[in-house]
Every structure is written in structure tokens, then in C-alpha cells.
Design goal:
Elements: E1 8-11, E2 23-26, E3 45-47, E4 62-66, H1 75-85, E5 88-94, H2 96-101, E6 109-114, E7 117-122, H3 130-151, E8 157-163, E9 168-170
Parallel strand pairs: 1-2, 1-4, 2-3, 4-5, 7-9
Antiparallel strand pairs: 5-8, 6-7
């Protein structure tokens, strides 16, 4: 829902930016976090971090953050920055259920949506419940990833549009998410 004349920033644009984004931002040229897909810089591009966006307040009409918030070391700061630089936006992340059973090595947060509010839980490590992950991988993962998710992707992802304010709650702000990511071997 973005007008044709809206100036749109995509943060964490990576190797497959949204066609609607006018300006792109990413933190890394090469990274495992996007499965080593080459960075696309086919329009105005800036290197920067989502916790400290290098733009003036109110510089953008719309902000796109697709599969980026779950990587944040400081979600409170990240969400404040999104609201500072843009008047409205779109956030998409894996739902907390999917993240819990099928965790990614670089995801620091589990996020779901309840009552139009992002519910955020910080992860003390990349796997929150190892026994649950083992049970899932042993029996359910092929069915879920090959059959169910491809036919119902939005049931496993949070899609959140906001105007003016991002409503969120962090349930465990005391958790330190600055743990070193595991190597590709573990």
C-alpha cells in the first residue's frame, strides 16, 4: 500500500530487494545471514546497521524490513530507528513458532503478532529448545518445509504494516542476545 511517489527505504535489502524500494541499506557485502547470496546495489545504496540508521528523521515515507528484525541485537533501538526515519512501513519475520522449531543460526529474536502488537522474545542462544528441534527434524521438518509452508507461507510468517507507530512488547528484555553465532559446522 505505497503510493507511486512515496520515497521508500528497504533495510536489509540483501540479494533480492523489493522492486518498490527507492533506497537500499544493508550491513554487509558478504554474509551467511543471507545464505551468501550476492548483494544487489542496482539503485541508491548505503551500508549501515538497522540499530543506527544513517538518515535524517522523517526522510522516508515508507520503510520495508523483510526478514531483518529477527537479526537485531537491540530490537528496541531498531524499532525506534524505523519510526524515526519513516512515517509508515512493513515488517516481515518468521513467526515465533517457525523460529522455535526451525531456528536459524543468526536469528536473535522470536516474534509473533497478537492483538496488532509485535510480541518479541529475545533468544539466549540460536536454539531455544533443543529437544523440540530434534523431534521436529526427525519427523516433521520435510513435511513442513516441502509441503505445508510453500502452500501456506503467511501462516508461518508475521506480516506487520504500521503507520506512525510500531506497537510492540519485549517479554524478556533482560536476555543478552550478543552471543557468538555458531559456525557453519554446528
Amino acid at each position: 500500500p505505497v503510493s507511486a511517489d512515496a520515497l521508500t527505504l528497504e533495510v536489509g535489502s540483501g540479494g533480492n530487494p523489493y522492486p518498490r524500494a527507492n533506497v537500499l541499506l544493508d550491513a554487509y557485502e558478504d554474509t551467511r545471514e543471507r545464505h551468501w547470496v550476492p548483494l544487489v546495489t542496482d539503485r541508491p545504496f548505503v551500508f549501515g546497521y538497522i540499530e543506527n540508521l544513517p538518515f535524517k528523521s522523517g526522510a522516508f515515507d515508507f520503510l520495508i524490513a523483510s526478514h531483518v528484525l529477527e537479526h537485531s541485537l537491540a530490537p528496541e533501538r531498531t524499532l525506534a530507528e524505523f519510526q524515526r526515519v519513516a512515517r509508515a512501513g512493513y515488517i516481515e519475520v518468521p513467526d515465533a513458532f517457525l523460529e522455535r522449531v526451525n531456528p536459524y543460526k543468526d536469528h536473535r529474536l522470536e516474534i509473533t503478532l497478537r492483538n496488532a502488537t509485535l510480541q518479541i522474545r529475545k533468544k539466549a542462544g540460536w536454539i531455544v529448545d533443543g529437544e523440540l528441534v530434534e523431534l521436529y527434524e526427525d519427523r516433521v521438518k520435510p513435511l513442513l518445509t516441502r509441503e505445508l509452508i510453500p502452500h501456506h507461507p503467511f501462516d508461518f510468517h508475521v506480516r506487520y504494516y504500521w503507520i506512525g507507530e510500531i506497537k510492540y512488547r519485549i517479554h524478556n528484555s533482560e536476555i543478552d542476545v550478543a552471543w557468538p553465532p555458531p559456525t557453519d559446522d554446528n
